[in-house]
Design brief:
The protein has about 500 residues and is α/β, with parallel strands linked by helices. Helices cover about 40% and strands about 15% of the residues. About 50% of the residues are buried. The structure holds NADP nicotinamide-adenine-dinucleotide phosphate (NAP).
């Protein structure tokens, strides 16, 4: 451990300036680094974190209310895996999106010069870490891994929910990277709410990534855009994640859907951005008993920290007290009868709460009911026929995911719904649940605002690297001055489109 506890004080403006200046200097070196060098750095970071995984899991358990097994141990595996996955994603050079167009005097719109395009690192990235995944979406988490893979230094804003873990993870990460040959300043860390804003306004920062609340993300997005030189702000904000169930699916496997749904909305005490917050069931579904039984067999869980618990109580109280909403199950808040008041004991463990509303009432006040409530609560909307289902979907805010539980015999109904669901979300799920997010090449974790501030990108999966790359074209350059991936000899052997052909 470091001698002092760096997280106990807000990082001063002058220290933020020093850290960003070091990142700017490191960016110059990183722009010249090869993907092969970066593979070595990422693998070294993964190895180092893996070696101290027991210590990090113990720190995470101390600072959050997340259970070690399987949750934090699973997160640790994922954290190490994603660093190695990004290393793997660098090896074939696909991420460079290289294209070569040789000079073509007979080009139909007029003679074409020799022009060649590929991506380069965008520059120092400011990473606002998330509270709900203290390992995999934090200091050495997915955004940091994507930035480093792209060849960008990462200035990390530590989350106050797990400061000691953040400091220790940073220490291990920074040491592993520099020992593997990466330049000093490739990673930096700042503590305190103001330090994040100071860094975001710093002219040396070229992009920012964020996972958290809609209010926080929007405030920071506006700051990024109000800079004299605005920068891309990749915010992953909130999502309600509707699940649509058809009559045929209920007839075929209603009980499984009830248990699967309760398992999904209570996973991690409902603190997943992909928690299914709305279940759209056909009127007369008859699943009440199965749903109540599934809820009754799910234990109460503590929320991450006081702030999240207070936010949950406030959101839950707004939903429960809505005049059209009924409680299908009663919450088992173990610590207080004042379970909805923000002052109630924050250490309380919350049992799941399942609420229900008719589609008519939902349509009459969608603004109050189509809301993310971070914690173990979900709302069932009972729709009366396909037309009303469409009307409900048409009124929803976009999100990260949309899920369908249907049968092959529903093909026509599903085909009619797909354009709406596609417009609503970044990931469509067939007969599964949205909470688990695998990391791979085809993953898409994003969606139109308010799911994210940049719907054309993903914040998870290997394609997340695209956020930190900027395309550049070289026109008329001699072979010797071109970057290797664009030279005719293609010495790195990267995949390219040459004169329009693959
Ligand atoms: P948050 O309040 O949005 O904070 C996330 C990070 O951004 C923190 O480091 C925070 O700094 C910083 N931040 C937020 N607003 C800011 C502002 N106006 N100016 C400067 N910095 C700001 O998220 P949280 O603490 O993780 O959890 C709160 C809520 O976020 C939850 O109840 C939930 O609704 C939502 N959430 C969503 C996701 C998701 O996956 N989309 C994940 C986690 C949480 P400080 O903490 O130092 O103020």
């Amino acid at each position: 451990m470091t001698a002092q506890a760096p997280w106990t004080e807000e990082t001063s403006a002058s220290e933020v300036d020093r850290i960003v200046a070091a990142a700017v200097e490191a960016a110059r070196h990183l722009a010249q680094s090869t993907p092969a060098e970066r593979v070595g750095w990422l693998d070294a970071a993964a190895d180092a974190l893996e070696k101290v995984s027991e210590e990090l899991v113990a720190l995470a358990a101390k600072e959050t209310h997340l259970p070690e097994q399987p949750r934090l141990r699973g997160e640790m595996v994922r954290t190490v895996f994603q660093l190695r996955l990004f290393a793997q994603a660098l090896t074939d050079g696909e991420f460079l999106r290289a294209a070569v167009d040789h000079a073509e005097p007979a080009w139909p719109m007029g003679p074409r010069p020799d022009i060649r395009r590929m991506t380069v690192p965008i520059g120092p990235v400011l990473v606002f870490t998330a509270s709900n995944f203290p390992l995999t979406l934090s200091v050495a988490g997915h955004d940091t891994a994507a930035a480093l893979a792209a060849g960008c230094p990462a200035v990390i804003k530590a989350h106050p929910g797990h400061p000691e873990l953040s400091a220790r993870t940073f220490e291990v990460l920074a040491q592993a990277l520099t020992e593997a040959g990466a330049p000093e300043g490739i990673v930096g860390i700042v503590y305190g709410v103001e330090s994040g804003v100071t860094a975001l306004r710093h002219p040396g920062i070229a992009a920012a990534a964020f996972t958290g609340s809609e209010a926080g993300g929007r405030a920071l997005f506006d700051i990024a855009n109000a800079r004299p030189r605005p920068i891309p702000f990749y915010g992953e904000l909130g999502s309600v994640n509707p699940v649509v169930v058809t009559e045929a699916a209920i007839a075929a496997r209603g009980a499984d859907i009830a248990t699967g749904y309760v398992g999904s909305f209570t996973l991690g005490a409902g603190q997943f951005c992909t928690k299914p917050g709305l279940l759209l069931l056909p009127k007369g579904h008859g699943l009440e008993e199965q749903l109540r039984a599934a809820v009754a067999s799910t234990g109460a869980q503590q929320l991450l920290n006081d702030r999240i618990a207070a936010g949950f109580r406030a959101g839950l109280s707004r939903l429960v007290e809505h005049s059209s909403v009924t409680e299908l199950t009663h919450p088992a808040d173990s610590a207080s009868s004042e379970r909805y008041t923000p002052e109630a004991n924050s250490a309380a463990a919350f049992g799941p709460t399942l609420l229900s509303v008719s589609a008519d009432a939902f349509l009459a006040d969608t603004e109050s009911l189509d809301v993310e409530c971070f914690g173990p609560v979900s709302l069932i909307v009972e729709y009366d026929g396909p037309q009303q289902l469409r009307a409900v979907l048409d009124k929803l805010e976009p999100g990260l995911t949309a899920t369908l539980h249907a049968e092959e015999s529903d093909a026509d109904q599903v085909r009619a719904l797909l354009p709406t669901l596609t417009a609503l979300s970044g990931r469509l799920i067939w007969n599964g649940w949205p909470t688990g997010i695998t990391l791979s090449w085809a993953q898409q974790h994003g969606g139109p605002y308010p799911a994210t501030t940049t719907p054309q990108f993903t914040s998870m999966g290997t394609a997340a690297i695209d956020r930190f790359l900027r395309p550049v074209a070289w026109q008329g350059f001699p072979e010797a001055l071109l970057p290797e991936p664009l030279q005719d000899a293609n010495p790195w052997g990267v995949p390219r489109r040459v004169d329009g052909q693959r």
